[in-house]
Amino acid sequence: MAKNEQNEQKPMNLMNATEILMPNENFPWVIFRLQDQFFAISSNYVQSMIELPHFNHVPNVPEYVRGVIDYQGQPVYLIDMRKKIGIQPLEMEIAEFVELMNMREADHKNWLNVLEQCINEDREFTLATDAEKCRFGQWYLEFLPTVKNNNLSFWLKKFDLPHKKIHGIAQQAIDLLHQDKKERAIQLIERTRDGELDKMIKLFSKLKEIYKSSNNEIAMIVDPQFTRQPTALLVDQIMSVEILPREKWREIDDYISVGTGSPITGLAEFKDIQSLVATLDVSCFL
Fold this sequence. Notes:
2 domains
């Protein structure tokens, strides 16, 4: 009897840890994305999932603690799963994207300015006249096929026509210059600056706005029975919540080398996820 009483007094996370981490036909897993990688945790750990609300920074905490949110009147610590696992933080990724778009916008402003100078000074124009060869064009062709957000893809595709038209005027302006029609060549550049370039500038602004808004992080509130203090796991996106049939699990040693203390407990195939999903031991993050 004393032994049973002792078991009943054990914390829930110690009693259920093995059961939760092994394949089980009776409970679903929460599949989430961090950058371009996919992970899953047992839904037994998750009390609720909410879009990241306003949070407050707190001093003297580990780097991976983003801050504290108010959830149902209780302070809840935010664990940034990107930082905890060693993936580039989302805020840094967004900042780099915004800076990249700012640079590519500046490139095209400069491109027209240089073309105008070359026409005025009757000298050779050496910048890219092929829209696919400039730095934005190369990035665009590589990045577009990887975009899974339909709204972001829609606005990206709007760059195609004005971008090609801008690069297309270089030869037209040069031909006009060779025909002793410098004034018409300058007018063409000015119309392009007021027309196609202005469209691109507005598209760059819209793209930055959409990229920021499309990266709304999700806070998974951990069931308090598993934590010493209220905690939420911050992820990029929730992909699905589904049962993991036993036959979908794969031998982890066949794919990756996992050291002692690794939070990765297994690999599995999930519906609509082309790559294998790493299942995690949540207790490693609490």
